[in-house]
Design goal:
heterotrimer, A mainly alpha (290), B alpha/beta (253), C mainly alpha (300), A: mainly alpha, 75% helix, 0% strand, B: 253 residues, alpha/beta, six-stranded mixed β-sheet, 27% strand
């Protein structure tokens, strides 16, 4: 076909696709709005001071009174506990990879690859594994079992996120520190961590968000209860399971607790997402550009 | 417009964000000659080149004001089909960028996107342009092989053949030999000397010796401004500006 | 005094060093431990029935000792496949638009949108699914196609899953597209191609391995997703025979029945085997996709 018609066809095709692409992009933003709005619409009416400050009375599935304090506290205990443990294990490993193993790039890359693989393992597999461990070690469903399982689940996230931040520290800084007489470990903690602290905080927030939102890993291991646990060996309620278990109840007050839990959880996640975005932008601005 | 001028750049000012990259550029580029744009690295030469075929449209941060006349049309305010305009010019970059396809398809690319897709119409032109770029003998047996398998010197010649295949009048070259070994560099320079009879060549370089070797006309730029321009002989033997003299002595390198 | 500090420092150093090494070893062993743990528990069942039988039988009657996993495997495949078919084109189109066409500020605006979507927990997606997607399928889609449906279907599961994996795939695609050098696209434009022609013939071609990997990673993410799908997919243990039939993917199977797990003989073993299958499939997809991405980066 001649040149002019060909050009017309090309332009028409381009115009159509641009329209479709715009719709796709807008669609994604619209879906987010839809999700947040539907949670708000159902959750706000259910929210009240009693809801947030009391545990369910009369059993979480049937009891009409009380609130979701058990889930809020349980989730916080679980998420904080596992994030702290993951930090204790993950931060040293990430530092190790970037400082002590600097000359073994192949090994470091293998570790990164393994961690990326682990990151992709679904949380229910961790849950099933955690359950096997529990049975093996003779622990009952408890906060401790949950913390261990969730820690395993978020370790790859914690390590890789911190690793990504540490990777950006230029070699010159390491050399400068070492030539001042520090050991590698001291360099790790006093220099790298300080330089990367906003990024590390972002990694912590990210891991915390995953820990508090996950249901599949705690399903088998933490159990569920109406009460706030007083020791690690007691089962604990978590917000995701609070939603899951109470949503299908025929009693509207119980359902309301599910919606309230959903709202609380969503708000927590929104706060985490926004603050970590904010932090990483601050990080970019204040970083010394080498 | 003077009939010996191929490109007439008037009062060109270019900003990237808040920074001014090109200041009051006025250049007349002569037909069928090799015009070398000379200057130390980072003074806006590449940006100027990219403005000539409006590649700068790709970057929303870039604001261009001024006029660039080619064939009595101001390409900066041209509202028509920009792709046709671009085909009047061929671009050779610093590093060769072969398209992710076979050698044959690389050269044929310009023709195919204009609508000529039948193979029978393509084989002859592809051979012709590969010969023009002195690459035919080396690749004639492996036209279907991916272009990425060629050596870097061959790739640059491929990019040249590809650029010539759209039948431009002007060849824009951005430091085309900087990534090449001396032998391939020389091949490209010799090619330009052959081609100038039929094409107008605008070449950016920061290598003084290369400019001395092949330039007919020189434009010296420094920090986004045109310092001096004129026929090569005059430029190198009788520079008028202080900065030009300093540059020729090696002050800015 | 100095000597005291020197000793303390040396000790701290060694302790740190050893701790790091220990933690590292634990992490490296984790995949093996996971697989091994699950395998050991599944062995009990595998000793009594062949793997082949369990994977390919559609007879699921735990009380009678029949643990055919086929309906669940097929459900998983259905839901995953549909979700990817829905999500992949949207992600591709959006990634192309954001990296090639739109102004910079739109990409910056979409980043938090994508991050938030990626961070929303599975149960919230499930809740949203129940509130919006299930009625949508039941009141609009099904009647449109001449079916009657409660909405708790494979389609609903696929829609919810698609929305969940979109941010994941999109982020990877945006990164992949950014690895294609601007100069290559400029070369195509200089030859007179339009933007769209450049996208089709240069960008997509060059990024092809990355696109496949992104989709591969999306598949593995979708395959392992538990809560959201469980809440909308119907949970009926038979082989799904259409968009509007309920399904019962593997993760849902494991999640729903952990309570009865220990009371019926071999049930726990079967569920652990299901978890092992899930683990292996996801690992394989992840392995292949990530390897491809590494090779892509090397070639750039």
């Amino acid at each position: 076909m001649n040149r002019k018609n060909h050009t017309r066809l090309i332009k028409a095709e381009e115009k159509i696709f641009i329209g479709v692409m715009r719709m796709a992009t807008l669609g994604i933003a619209a879906v987010l709005m839809l999700i947040i709005v539907s949670i708000l619409v159902n959750g706000l009416p259910a929210l009240s001071w009693e809801m947030l400050s009391q545990t369910p009375k009369g059993g979480f599935y049937f009891g009409k009174e009380g609130g979701i304090l058990n889930a809020i506290v349980g989730s916080l205990y679980l998420a904080v506990g596992s994030t702290v443990m993951a930090l204790f294990i993950g931060l040293p490993v990430a530092l190790f990879m970037n400082i002590h193993l600097l000359n073994h790039q192949k090994l470091v890359n293998t570790i990164r690859f393994l961690l990326d693989l682990l990151w992709g393992v679904p949380s229910i597999v961790y849950g099933a594994f955690g359950f096997t461990l529990m049975v093996y070690m003779g622990i009952r469903t408890s906060l401790l079992a949950g913390i261990i399982t969730v820690t395993l689940f978020i370790i790859p996230i914690m390590v890789r996120s911190i690793d990504e931040v540490l990777k950006t520290v230029p070699r010159g800084l390491l050399e400068a520190s070492l030539s001042l007489g520090s050991t590698r470990s001291e360099t790790a903690f006093r220099v790298f961590v300080r330089q990367c602290s906003p990024g590390i905080v972002t990694a912590i927030l990210l891991s915390f968000g995953r820990a508090i939102g996950d249901a599949a890993a705690v399903l088998f291991t933490t159990g569920y209860t109406d009460y706030i646990p007083h020791s690690l060996s007691q089962p604990a309620a978590t917000l995701p399971l609070a939603i899951f278990f109470q949503l299908s109840s025929p009693i509207p007050e119980v359902k309301a607790r599910a919606y309230a839990s959903a709202l609380v959880l969503t708000i927590i996640i929104l706060i985490i997402s926004i603050s970590s975005r904010y932090l990483s932008r601050r990080f970019e601005k204040n970083k010394i550009k080498f | 417009m003077d009939s010996n001028t191929e490109i007439d750049i008037r009062n060109l000012n270019l900003h990237i964000g808040k920074q001014q990259i090109l200041k009051d550029i006025n250049i007349q580029i002569p037909k069928n000659k090799i015009t070398v744009i000379l200057g130390p690295s980072g003074c806006g030469k590449t940006t100027l080149l990219k403005t000539l075929n409006r590649l700068t449209d790709m970057y929303p941060d870039i604001k261009v004001v001024g006029e660039i006349f080619i064939d009595d049309i101001d390409i900066l305010s041209y509202k028509g089909d920009i792709t046709q305009l671009r085909q009047r010019m061929g671009l050779l970059s610093q590093r060769p960028y072969p398209l992710p396809m076979s050698i044959f398809k690389n050269v044929a690319y310009g023709l195919r996107i204009s609508g000529r897709k039948e193979k029978k119409f393509l084989t002859k032109p592809v051979e012709h342009f590969l010969r023009q770029a002195s690459l035919w003998e080396e690749v004639k047996d492996r036209l279907r092989d991916p272009a990425s398998g060629l050596s870097i010197g061959q790739q640059q010649r491929l990019c040249l053949a590809r650029g010539l295949a759209v039948d431009p009048k002007i060849i824009l070259a951005d430091e085309p030999t900087s990534a090449l070994d001396p032998v391939s560099s020389q091949a490209i320079e010799e090619k330009f000397l052959e081609l100038k009879d039929n094409y107008t060549i605008v070449m950016v370089t920061h290598v003084l010796r290369q400019a001395r070797r092949i330039a007919d006309h020189v434009v010296f730029m420094y920090l986004g401004e045109v310092v001096e321009q004129g026929p090569a002989k005059e430029f190198f033997e009788n520079p008028k500006e202080e900065r030009t003299k300093a540059y020729l002595k090696g002050a800015f390198n | 005094m100095r000597k005291y500090f020197k000793i303390k420092r040396g000790l701290r150093n060694t302790l740190n060093h050893n701790w790091m090494l220990l933690a590292l070893i634990v992490i490296m062993l984790l995949p093996i431990l996971l697989g091994l743990g699950l395998y050991i528990k599944s062995e009990v069942l595998l000793q009594k029935q062949s793997l082949w039988h369990v994977l390919f039988s559609s007879n699921w009657k735990p009380l009678a000792g029949e643990f055919g996993l086929l309906p669940f495997i097929l459900s998983s495949l259905w839901v995953t496949f549909l979700a990817v078919v829905l999500a992949a084109p949207i992600c591709l189109l959006t990634a192309i638009y954001l990296t090639q066409y739109s102004k910079k500020y739109l990409l910056r605006f979409m980043h938090p949108v994508i991050d938030i979507l990626a961070g929303i927990p599975s149960v919230i997606y499930g809740l949203w699914g129940i509130l919006i997607v299930v009625p949508f399928v039941s009141h609009y889609v099904a009647p449109l196609l001449g079916y009657q449906s409660s909405g708790f279907t494979v389609l609903a599961g696929a829609i919810v899953l698609a929305v969940m994996i979109i941010p994941f795939i999109l982020n990877i695609l945006i990164d992949v597209f950014h690895t294609v050098p601007d100069e290559l696209l400029e070369a195509s434009l200089s030859l007179g191609a339009t933007r769209w022609q450049t996208v089709k013939k240069v960008l997509l071609r060059k990024a092809y391995p990355g696109i496949i990997s992104a989709i591969g990673l999306g598949v593995s993410r979708a395959f392992g997703e538990t809560m959201a799908v469980l809440m909308v997919v119907g949970n009926v243990a038979h082989i799904p025979n259409g968009l509007f039939s309920p399904g019962y993917p593997l993760p849902a199977l494991i999640a729903n029945n952990y309570g009865e797990m220990l009371s019926i003989p071999l049930y726990d073993s079967a569920l652990m085997l299901a978890a092992l299958v899930l683990f292996v499939v996801v690992m394989l997809f992840n392995f292949g996709s990530r390897l491809a991405i590494i090779r892509l980066e090397k070639n750039m």
